[in-house]
Every structure is written in structure tokens, then in C-alpha cells.
Amino acid sequence: xxxxxxxxxxxxxSGEGKKTAKVTTKGTSGKSAGNPESRTALVRRAxxxxxxxxxxxxxxxxxxxxxxxxxxxxxxxxSAQTTDLRVNQTTPGLFAKYPTPEDLAAANPEEVEEILxxxxxxxxxxxxxxxxxxxxxxxxxxxxxxxxxxxVTLPGVGRKTAFVVLGNAFGRPGITVDTHFxxxxxxxxxxxxTDPDKIEAAIGTLFPKGDWTDxxxxxxxxxxxxxxxxxxxxxxxxxxxxCPAYGEGETDPEKxxxxxxxxxxxxPGQRLNPPQAYLDAGGRPAPPLGAG
Length: 292
Ligand code: SF4
Known about the structure:
Blueprint: H1 39-56, H2 69-78, H3 84-97, H4 101-105, H5 109-116, H6 122-140, H7 148-151, H8 159-169, H9 179-187, H10 196-204, H11 212-225, H12 253-257, H13 276-280
Bound molecules: iron/sulfur cluster (SF4).
């Protein structure tokens, strides 16, 4: 992996052209310290970060287990306020009992609540997945639609959920602005926007559309494994030279290494059934609910 310490400093523009605050980069060569970062330099740095992350996580994939668009849609709704691991441990039981939208639309809510209990907010989530199943049956003949404007008409389905489904079940490019994505793009000064829709629009201007889905995986994987919310592992971060926020977390390499999660830290991943590329790279499947 080749990294240069020359482009992570300065006053820069957001994806919508607004000036943002001047930033300084700790731990870089300081070659361009104090210089404003042009729009062109920002685009280059952003794309370089994405390329570096593609090398670090060549097997990046959606971390929700699914076998069809319906399962991905339900799993994505269930993933609010919990980990993908917990969802993956819960959905096998749910889909074994209710394999189709028709089954879930006709389900007894109390029985669904019992299955979804481990995911937290299980009453609201039960209402959501039964509601969206009814929507699928009533409006779309029991099929998950492959268009953003249709998906967002389903109860409990917003743009983030819709993009996850479009990108990963239909192969349509989309940017998934989840909590990790929001945190990291702000740390990298890719945008100063805080509203998810505005972040999505701003970041969309930095990358070709065909990169959007993989970019989302790379950023989210980095947020989960290395650039954590409270204690980013800066000292073990492969893109530190490109990051204006270097030093926000632990910079000691040995201490930073201990903060790494999932396969970077020697722990299993989140999917019970991960893609082969992940297993080939040494990743381990997550255990089912109740194991160990
Ligand atoms: S871990 Fe530190 S250096 Fe790496 S991207 Fe996050 S804030 Fe930047």
C-alpha cells in the first residue's frame, strides 16, 4: 500500500461548495500545512482514501446475512440501534417461520415480538416489518420493488434503508449514510454537512456513481473496525497520512492495535454466512445466537 503525507491539510470546500473551517493535520509531514485544500485536491484525497480502503478491505461486503431482497429489506430495518451481528443471529429464526412477505404480513405480532426481542425496540420493529410486509403485498404483489421512489413508500423504509437494498440486492449504486459514514466523512473533511440527505448529495459529487456502493462498504467497514466513534485507533490506521483527524484517537501503535475489531483484531465478523472472499482472507463467521 502506498500512502503519501501530502494532502490532508487545509481549508477546504464541502461537496456543495461551501467553505469549511481551516484544519490542521497532526502526524503528517506538514508539507502543505496551512495551505487551503482546493476542490481538486479534496476530490483526489477522497478518492485516494477510497482506493486505500479498498486494499485494506478487498472483501468488504454488506454485513447483514440475506438470501433475497425481502430478507435484506427486513434485516436492514431490524439493524437500527443494534449491531448487524445481533440481527444476523435473529433473522434465521424469523425467516424460517415467515419466509415471504405474505407470511410476515399475516403474522401474529406477539409471536414476531418474541423472535425479535434480542434486536431491541422489538415492539416497534415488529410493527415495522409487519407493516412493510403488508405494503409489499398490497402495493407490489409481494415483490420488493427495485426503485427508490417505490421503496420509500413502504412503512419504516427511508432513503438509507432503500439504498442498502438497491445497492446490494439490485446492484444499483447508492451511498449509505449510516452513523459510521457520517462520522468518518466529517473526520476526513469531505463535507461539513450534518443532514444525511445533504451528506449523501455532497459525497456523491466526489465519486463516480459506479463507486458509490463499494465506497459505502469501505467507509462503514473502516468505521466499525478502526475509526471508532469514541476511540479511533489512529496509531494502527492505514490511511492516517491522509486524515485531518489523525490524533483524535490513540496514536500509540501497540495500544491502537488493541482497539481493532472484527477480523482486524482477531475476532469473528458479523455475518454467520460471509462471502467466500472474506473467509479466504482469514475472516471468521460469527457464531449463531446462544453459541459460546
Ligand atoms: S482512525 Fe484516526 S487516522 Fe484513521 S481515519 Fe480515523 S481519525 Fe483518521
